[in-house]
């Protein structure tokens, strides 16, 4: 049975979409069947995979509202060997349209249920907020939440608020919800600040921080403008090496054997 992880952090610019795209690409490269689900109205994950968000004919908006089964909305990237449930600006209206709907917080979970057996990993990219779309992402996170945290000033600001939201979701909707791990991003080895943030996050989540730390990288910042993950854009870069190592660390932690070399 496939695993579903949601990438969540209400702070913007922490590398959430970058992590969803690049972690997904390397999981696929390592032999996993991967689906990336974009539930951010900004549709950055969608455009980062080379899909024009303005031309999306159907995606997470239709799936959340129950207009079309998610399975018929998936886009296949043959080059990367992964699937995408795209987003579009229309998704911005979903929070308003779902307000009076029954079980509105569980719509994404229900929409993805028929797809679980088709994929080894489903990665959900949430918007940088704690609204209804993110709540849907949290309730769909059957196997846990991945929290990207940038190694910069105020990195821990808002983590407490996120944890409060997670606790509310546990209490009211999904008691089994857990944090699968914290991913440190945008690390700059030239500064004491980055090292300080690493230490602080380690205190906040003593057993849940991934050993792999993603460095600040120009190549990682450039790749989305070409509609490619770092594995296809600059596979020899330090950012690529970090995300490949992160994918392997996640697989190892999940008890998944890596394919034999060669």
Describe the fold and architecture.
This protein is of the alpha/beta class. It has a single domain (3-252), classed as Rossmann fold, CATH 3.40.50.300. The protein is 36% helix and 13% strand. The protein is built from eleven helices and seven strands. The chain has helices at 16-29, 44-48, 60-64, 94-97, 107-112, 132-139, 159-172, 192-204, 218-222, 230-233, 238-253; strands at residues 3-7, 34-38, 75-77, 82-85, 121-125, 145-150, 179-185. A seven-stranded mixed sheet has the order 3-4-2-5-1-6-7, with helices on both faces. α1 packs across α11 (238-253). The radius of gyration is 17 Å and the shape is globular. The chain starts with a strand and ends in a 9-residue tail after the last helix.
List the topology elements.
Elements: E1 3-7, H1 16-29, E2 34-38, H2 44-48, H3 60-64, E3 75-77, E4 82-85, H4 94-97, H5 107-112, E5 121-125, H6 132-139, E6 145-150, H7 159-172, E7 179-185, H8 192-204, H9 218-222, H10 230-233, H11 238-253
Parallel strand pairs: 1-5, 1-6, 2-4, 2-5, 6-7
Antiparallel strand pairs: 3-4
Overall shape:
globular
Strand content: 5-15%
SS content category? alpha/beta
Helix content: 25-40%
Q: How many domains make up the 3D coordinates?
A: 1
**How many distinct helices?**
11
Please give the largest β-sheet: 7 strands, mixed
Radius of gyration equals: 17 Å
CATH topology: Rossmann fold
CATH C-level label: Alpha Beta
Average pLDDT figure: 92
End-to-end C-alpha gap: 27 Å
- CATH homologous superfamily - what is it? P-loop containing nucleotide triphosphate hydrolases
Number of DSSP E strands:
7
SSE order, one letter for each helix or strand: EHEHHEEHHEHEHEHHHH
Uncertain segments:
none
Reported CATH architecture: 3-Layer(aba) Sandwich
Neighbour order of strands in the largest sheet? 3-4-2-5-1-6-7
């Amino acid at each position: 049975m496939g695993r579903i992880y949601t990438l969540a952090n209400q702070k913007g610019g922490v590398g959430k979409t970058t992590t969803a795209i690049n972690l997904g690409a390397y999981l696929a490269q390592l032999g996993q069947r991967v689906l990336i689900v974009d539930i951010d109205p900004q549709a950055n994950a969608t455009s980062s995979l080379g899909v024009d968000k303005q031309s999306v004919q159907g995606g997470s908006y239709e799936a959340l509202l129950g207009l079309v089964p998610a399975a018929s909305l998936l886009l296949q990237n043959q080059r990367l060997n992964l699937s995408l449930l795209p987003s579009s600006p229309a998704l911005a209206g979903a929070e308003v349209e779902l307000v009076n709907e029954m079980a509105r917080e569980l719509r994404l979970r229900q929409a993805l249920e028929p797809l679980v057996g088709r994929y080894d990993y489903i990665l959900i990219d949430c918007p940088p907020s704690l609204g209804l779309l993110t709540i849907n992402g949290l309730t769909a996170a059957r196997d846990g939440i991945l929290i990207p945290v940038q190694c910069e000033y105020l990195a821990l600001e808002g983590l407490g608020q996120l944890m409060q939201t997670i606790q509310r979701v546990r209490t009211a909707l999904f008691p089994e919800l857990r944090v699968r791990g914290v991913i440190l991003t945008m690390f700059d080895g030239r500064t004491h600040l980055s090292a300080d943030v690493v230490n602080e996050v380690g205190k906040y989540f003593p057993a849940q921080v991934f050993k792999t730390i993603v460095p600040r990288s120009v190549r990682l910042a450039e790749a989305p403008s070409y509609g490619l993950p770092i594995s296809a854009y600059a596979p020899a870069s330090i950012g690529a090496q970090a995300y490949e190592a992160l994918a392997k660390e996640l697989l190892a932690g999940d008890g998944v054997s890596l394919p034999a070399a060669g």
